[in-house]
Design goal:
By secondary structure, this protein is of the alpha+beta class. The chain has one domain. 18% of the residues lie in helices and 44% in strands. The strands form three sheets. Strands 2, 3, 4, 5 and 11 form a five-stranded mixed β-sheet that branches. It has a four-stranded antiparallel β-sheet with strand order 7-8-9-10. β3 and β4 form a beta hairpin. The radius of gyration is 17 Å and the shape is globular.
């Protein structure tokens, strides 16, 4: 199973809105550079090693906004931009270092802020033996629209507003 997961993380297209909660990942990471806020280049080159013993270069580090199901935006801090992986990973170890508690049970996974009396700040679904966070990238999509980068699919606009010039 682990080898299959590692092999599926290399090359191809990412599951854009799916963030896998991973207890073996050393850092949060994604291949999508446009999601980053306050991204910084690394002072020295770095690499991520996956379960199949291949290495992947880290391009930048920064924070990524995630829109939670309750409408609030939370930021994953110290996320690595690794262009050659295809899964978005949330590191359990990194969340624990940031004062969060992550619990897993048959109903899903739950992230609580221990600095705020154990307040639930995120939850996730269980998909077999994998857990994913219930988040979406609405803030990121709206940010791209504001910056003129989210208008690319004219077909979607046509379906939404039709021929506005008629």
């Amino acid at each position: 199973m682990m080898e299959h997961m590692a092999n599926s993380m290399i090359g191809g297209v990412s599951d854009n809105n799916v963030w896998y909660v991973d207890s073996k990942a050393s850092n949060h990471m994604t291949n999508d550079g446009k999601w980053f806020r306050d991204a910084k280049d690394l002072k020295t080159p770095g690499f991520v090693e996956t379960g199949d013993d291949t290495t992947h270069p880290i391009r930048q580090i920064g924070k990524v906004p995630l829109s939670m199901q309750d409408g609030q935006t939370k930021y994953l801090k110290d996320v690595l931009h690794v262009p050659t992986i295809i899964k978005n990973l949330v590191s359990v170890g990194q969340m624990v270092e940031q004062g969060l508690q992550v619990t897993f049970n048959p109903n899903g996974c739950f992230v609580e802020n221990m600095k705020n009396q154990g307040k639930l700040i995120a939850k996730g679904e269980r998909n077999g033996q994998m857990f994913t966070l219930d988040v979406n990238m609405l803030e990121v999509n709206s940010m791209l629209f504001r910056n003129g980068k989210g208008v690319g699919d004219i077909g979607i606009w046509h379906k939404r507003v039709g021929h506005v010039n008629l």
